[in-house]
Structure formats: structure tokens, C-alpha cells
Amino acid sequence: MINLDTDFVRSQFPAFSEPSLEGFAHFENAGGSYACGQVIEHLNRYYRETKLQPYYGFEPSIGAGEQMDESRIRMARWLNVKADEVHFGPSTSQNTCVVAQALRQHLKAGDEIIVTNQDHEANVGAWRRLEEAGIVVREWKIDPHSAELDSVGLEDLLSEYTRAVAFTHCSNIVGSMHPVREWVDRIHAAGAIAIVDGVSYAGHGMPDVEALGADIYLFSLYKVYGPHLGVMVMRSALNERLPNQGHFFNERHPTDRFTPAGPDHAQVASVNGVMDYMETVHDHHFDHDLTTWTRANRVLELFQQEERRLLRKLLEFLNDHPKTQLIGRSTTEDRAPTVSFTIEGQSPAELGLKLAELKIGVGVGHFYAYRLIDALGIDTDEGVVRASFVHYTSAEEVARLIAALDQVL
Predict the structure, then answer these.
(1) What number of CA atoms fall less than 13 Å from residue 235's CA on the CB side?
(2) How far is 296 from 82, CA to CA, in rounded Å?
(3) 97 vs 104, 195, 268, 293, 339, CA distance in Å?
(4) Beta bridge partners of 139
(5) Nearby residues of 50 by Cβ (< 8 Å), 6 or more positions away
(6) Distances (CA, A) of 99 to 105, 166, 215, 222
(7) Angle at alpha carbon of residue 72, lines to 293 and 44, rounded to 5°
(8) Which of 206, 204, 219 minimizes the C-alpha distance to 296?
(9) In this structure, is the dihedral angle defined by the CA atoms of residues 153, 373, 146 and 297, taken in order, positive or negative?
(10) Contact partners, residue 26, CB within 8 Å, separation at least 6
């Protein structure tokens, strides 16, 4: 078993050598990760050398377009899909809104869409608004005691009228990593498409979208060490079926049909930095003469192995403390290090401010999973405390967090 070289990993992130951040421990990674140095360098290079309209026949316009094309091709390899199945949009919320408009035109009154009450609102609200067009929206509910979704709840809702099911790969509050392939197979057997929100998963390793089987898979690069862009994988067969949402003259261009707004050229080009970083981590730990698919899976396991190692102590502390109520499972199996909890005797905001005084940053609120918080019987105005970390978080930082929580509780 190879262990993650945390010192090497942290050396790839300028934030860890930034004087203004000295002593600060970042535990709101589920809301946005630090950018790796490779992404920052790509942005710098693009703005210095190629900040103009790409795809013309002169340099540096040619170079600008080549950088953007390379980002799409390389990202597709890491996700194990075709390059023309990868779409870059302003955000995941924006990408879902565009697809919802396509479904509004594609579906008919009486067709059904299943959504959960566990997801971030980006993967709920866009589909729920289709009720205005006569689409029937059915809700796959969590167990209010465990906060989990289960397969039985899905089976009970699937019917001959089901056309789409939207669910999350990993909850941004509960932290559970769901059996995506199992659920997708059930959805496909019912004749429906599977729309999977991977925003809270992808920061813990690039998913193999081909293996997952999702028809649409979405995530946000600013939570995967990169720029503020949304990535949407839409499989070719679905792309061909849904109506074009871009300019009419781009009807035959797969990657333009569902990104009607012009992309941020520099940010798209900087996506290369995300793959540069992943490759650098891989080659530091393993032999590098491998397929991209193999490298991606090795990096994912390396990241998640380290995260589980650090997560165990935090879960034990919160599960055992008499003043905290942990949300989600107390074991590390199939669980992201996105740890949410409520506190007896003080509000999440109060606790967050106390931790901030100790130079520890955690999140507080409902994190756009408003329906989940409400279903758990928690005050939606207060929400929960969320301490989230990723592979670059050190054991010393986790120990500091636990000690600080013990102090302020």
C-alpha cells in the first residue's frame, strides 16, 4: 500500500506558502478548494500570452484555441468519456438550468421526473420548475433518522411514466457516497435517464463516468482545485435526442448545443492545470507509463485512502461528544470527509465564529441543501456546522480542529 506524500501534495498549492494564510486551517473545502499551482500558472500564461479571441488563423489566437481544446480532450480522458461529451459552463447550477429547458421542450405533460430531498438545490430546483409545463415531479425522500437515501425509495417511485431521475453521487451534508451504478441500472431498466450531481464527489478523485453509466454527470471545478467552471458530461445518445439550446447554426456541434453562453476562454484553458496536478501526483507515487484511466483510478484511491485515514478520528470525536449530533454515518466506508453536525447550547454561527478566532474556517448554514435540512427537522435559518476537508489536509490540521472543537464546546 502506497501512502500519500502530504508534504509533496501541499507543495503544489501556493495557498500553503502564502504569508497571509499562515496558521489558517481550511475546513470548508466542500464549498471551494484551494487552486493548485498548475491552474494558476495556466491562467497567468493565458492572460499574458493569448488573451484574445481564439480559433482564428493567426498566432496567438491559434495557441489560445489549442489550449482550450486540450483541456476538453484531457478532461475527457480522466473521466473516461469522449471529448465531445464534455461541456464547460459557468457553473453546475447554470448547466442544469440549460438541460431543464431542453427537457421542457422534449417531455410532455404527464411524464414524470424523480428528484430527492437530499440534493443541493441545483439538482432539484431546475427539475421541479418543469411542473409549470405539466411534468409530474415525484420526491425520493431520505430516511429522517439516518438522513440516507435507499434503493427501496427509488423502486417505489419508478414507473412506466418515469423519464428522468436526478440524484447526488455524494451528499454535500450527509457525506455518503452512493451506489451510482446500481441506481443507474435500475433507472435505465425503467426506461429513464439518470442525472447525477457529482459536485461533492469529484474533489475526492475524478469519477469514471463510463463505469457509473450516468447519462448526465455534473461537477464544479472550483471544488476540484481549478477555476470557477461547471463540467457537464452528457452522453452522445442523449445529446442527439434533446433539442439544441445554443445558436441555431451550432445545431450539429455537440459541445455547443448545451452551452449557449460563450465560455470563459482563460478558465477553460486553465483546466489543463487540474490534469497537470493529477498527473504530477500520480507520477510522484507510481510508475507513469500507464493509461489515463488507470492513472485516474490510482489517484482516486490514493486520495480517498488518505481522507479515510484522517476522517476516522473526527467522526469518533463528534459521534462520542455529548453536545454534538453527527449527521450521517459514523464510519468511513463509502463516506466523504464532509462532516456536518448540530450542537447543543449554541448556534452553528456562534460555533463558527469561535473557531474562526482560532484560525479555523468551517462552514455554517444549509449549503443549498435546504430541503434536506428541513426534512431532518433542523432550523433552516441556522442550519448545521460543516467541517470538510480533502486529501491535502494534514493530520496536524485535523488534530487542531478536534482540539478546538473540544475547547469551544
Answers:
(1) 16
(2) 15
(3) 10, 13, 20, 30, 28
(4) 115
(5) 60, 61, 63, 64, 67, 269
(6) 10, 12, 12, 21
(7) 115
(8) 206
(9) positive
(10) 15, 34, 361, 389, 393
CB 26 within 8 A of CB 249: no
Query: What is the layout of strands, in order, in the sheet containing 338-343?
Result: 25-27, 360-365, 384-388, 338-343, 324-326
Exposure of 3 by Cβ count < 10 A (0-12 exposed, 13-18 middle, 19+ buried)?
exposed
Q: Round to the nearest angstrom and report the end-to-end CA distance of the chain.
A: 37
Instruction: Please say whether the beta carbons of 292 and 279 come within 8 A.
Output: no
pLDDT tens for the chain, 409 residues: list them: 799 999 999 999 999 999 999 999 999 999 999 999 999 999 999 999 999 999 999 999 999 999 999 999 999 999 999 999 999 999 999 999 999 999 999 999 999 999 999 999 999 999 999 999 999 999 999 999 999 999 999 999 999 999 999 999 999 999 999 999 999 999 999 999 999 999 999 999 999 999 999 999 999 999 999 999 999 999 999 999 999 999 999 999 999 999 998 889 999 999 999 999 999 999 999 987 778 989 999 999 999 999 999 999 999 999 999 999 999 999 999 999 999 999 999 999 999 999 999 999 999 999 999 999 999 999 999 999 999 999 999 999 999 999 999 999 9
Domains delineated in the chain: 6-35+306-408 (3.90.1150.10), 43-274 (3.40.640.10)
Residue found by looking up cell 451534508 in the block: 173
Distance of CA 227 to the CA centre of its chain: 13
